[in-house]
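Notes for week 9. Today we move from apo structures to complexes. The key idea is that a small molecule is not decoration. When we ask for a structure prediction with zinc ion present, the ligand SMILES becomes part of the input, just like the chain. The input block below holds both the sequence and the ligand string. Read it once before you look at the output, and try to guess where the molecule might sit.
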Amino acid sequence: MESDSQINVSQLLKSSVGTVKQILLSESLFNLADDELVFPSSGTLQLTRTDRGIWVSGIISVFAKNECSRCLVHYNASSKLEIDDEFLPSIDVKTGAKIRYSTDELIPGTNSIDAQHILDLSETIRQYYLANMSIAPLCRINCKGLCTECGVDLNESNCSCEQYQDQRWAKLRELLNK
Ligand SMILES: [Zn+2]
Ligand SMILES: [Zn+2]
């Protein structure tokens, strides 16, 4: 088994339809240009020769630094991605001729295998990761966030302004203000 995000699939492209190759992604490090997104990931992907190209499927785990939408703390989050995508060759592996696809064959999300028969998973994994990412990530389910008055992290400590934001103290405040 290979363990890289860039996989040479020339042998698999020469194989008959239905041939399966397993790719182990354990400890592969995807450094995906966007410097915030670094993915040490693990899992096994199946590469299956189809009549048109190579079908990549399987579940992998990726880890990335997220910023909590409430308290702004950076934390490592793990997410499971279910990869299910077909990659099409850009040249014929046997003849070396460029393959032309009609536009309706190029379904959205289709990935291409380059002229050196390299199937690059990093962009696909990045896309799946972004699609899977929560719009408002939380460091923990019940994150208390930051105090809107003094900015203190309410997970770490209580501040003195907290009581005035809490509606339970509204009655007391009324009494104090009298
Ligand atoms: Zn938080
Ligand atoms: Zn405060």
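The two ends are 76 Å apart (CA to CA).
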